[in-house]
Amino acid sequence: FESFKTHSNDAARSLAETHAAEMAEWRAKSDAEIDVLQKDLRHAESDAEKSRDAFNKLVSSSSERDELLAETLLRLEALELELDRATRALRRRGALVPTPEAEAEEKENAEAENAVSEKNAENSSDASRVAALEARVRRLTKQMHLSAGMHERAVAALRAEHFEVSKSNEAESKRLVAELEARTVAERFATRRAKAFEKALRDRDATAAVALAAATDAEETLLASLSDPNDPVSRVVFQPENENGAFVEKGNAKSVGAVAARSRRDPSASSPRRAARRNDRSASSRSPPPS
């Protein structure tokens, strides 16, 4: 315990000495930095004082110079006034004799006045030309505004016309679409009716059905031979009311009439369904009633 205590005391003492040395070193560095900063501050203060003194001297000298300049200007104005007054007095008395320098100066002044007057005349002519050009520019601007307004009105009229034409075209397209749908429905109805007719005819008489199929194939072959396969627009369409349609309808009517006459002459030549129905009815009539 004593050895541990001694060792702990030594360690604590060494740590405290180390911290004390570090603190002393840090304090020395801080003191050195503080001394440097204080020196810089003193130099800055001295420089600021010197600058302030120089500025004050400059301000005082500038104010003195301004005062001297103002006094000089006042004295110059007073001398000019006295000179003008003396000159006018001498001219009134006739005792003022112009010197060659004064004559030359007066001549130069007269020439300068003449040049200024000529320049003013040129400037006035230029001003009149500029005014004419400005009036022309205003007139052209007004014409451009008028033409722009006419163009805008024409564009508005064209837009309205385009809107009306687009509206009419849209209505026409809707009408054509409705008509096409109606024709499609009618064509489908006619196709179903023709298929029902063919089925009924096939059920009634197979020979007439074969003849009708052959006539249909012949009609399609004729239409294919008369139409251009490369041009879908050039199609040959036979209306039901023309002579070809009448001929086809007449042939169909003849075949149907022949089948009906044959069935009237020979009831056994009717359709098998009707014969089966007839046989069922005869069998039911011959069968005894139930007990």
What are the defining features of this structure?
single chain, 291 residues, mainly alpha, 5 helices, 88% helix, flat
Describe the secondary-structure layout.
Blueprint: H1 2-93, H2 100-204, H3 206-226, H4 243-265, H5 272-286
Helix pairs in contact: 2-3, 3-4
Biased composition (Basic and acidic residues): 1-10
Biased composition (Low complexity): 112-128
Region (Disordered): 1-21, 97-128, 242-291
* Order of helical and strand elements: HHHHH
- What global shape is seen? flat
Low-confidence stretches: 232-249, 263-291
Structural classification: mainly alpha
Question: How far apart lie the N and C ends?
Answer: 136 Å
- Main β-sheet, in a few words? none
State the helix count: 5
Number of strands: 0
Biased composition (Low complexity): 112-128
Biased composition (Basic and acidic residues): 1-10
Region (Disordered): 1-21, 97-128, 242-291
3D architecture notes:
Residues 112-128 have a biased composition (Low complexity). Residues 1-21, 97-128, 242-291 are annotated as: Disordered. Residues 1-10 have a biased composition (Basic and acidic residues). With 291 residues, the protein is mostly helical. The chain has a domain at 205-285. Helix content is 88%, strand content 0%. The protein contains five helices and no strands. The protein is flat.
What's this, in brief?
The chain is mainly alpha-helical and about 290 residues long. The chain contains 5 helices and no strands. The longest helix is centred in the middle third of the chain and has 105 residues, at about 100-205.
